[in-house]
Amino acid sequence: MEAARSRAAERTGERNLGKTILVVDDSSTIRLAVVGALRSAGHEVVEAADGEEALGLLDGRKIHLIVSDVNMPRMDGLAFARAAKSITAYRFIPIVMLTTVVDEAKKIQGRSIGVHAWVVKPFQEQVLLDAVSMLLPT
Predict the structure, then answer these.
(1) Torsion angle defined by CA atoms of residues 124, 119, 49 and 81, in that order, rounded to the nearest 10 degrees
(2) Which residue intervals of the chain are DSSP H helices?
(3) pLDDT band, very low/low/confident/very high, at 102 (cuts 50, 70, 90)
(4) 3-state helix, strand and coil shares in percent for the chain, rounded to the nearest 5
(5) CATH homologous superfamily, domain 2-135
(6) What are the residue boundaries of the structural domains of the chain, listed by start?
(7) Integer angstrom CA distances of residue 45 from 64, 74, 110, 128
(8) pTM of the prediction?
(9) Hey, is 48 helix, strand or coil?
(10) Sign of the alpha-carbon dihedral angle for 6, 40, 36, 67
(11) What is d(CA 97, CA 115) in angstroms, rounded to the nearest whole number?
């Protein structure tokens, strides 16, 4: 696992260092795994347990990418993505959905909101890191 993280950090290189990623998931276990992978690849991470908490973190701080679950209490990932995209400062932010939801209708809905990628749980760390690296601005 550590070798995969090192390869991801090498592949992303200098262009993605210092990028801040918001991770939104109601499962503390999943958040821990995602945060660990992203930090090992050289990213800064901000965490939230659901969409409402995540919206509170979109307070003008620079967030370069969002990784969000779909099924969460209080505000699900699609409602959060819609709300995030309605904030001018975050309108063009890339969003990756990390979820067990593979329903094509949900994916279509997500694309119409502005979701850029879907990574299915249980996820392979390298798949997540590749999606993040591909979407991060240079």
Answers:
(1) 160
(2) 2-12, 28-40, 51-57, 77-85, 104-113, 125-135
(3) confident
(4) 50, 15, 35
(5) Response regulator (3.40.50.2300)
(6) 2-135
(7) 10, 22, 23, 14
(8) 0.86
(9) strand
(10) negative
(11) 7
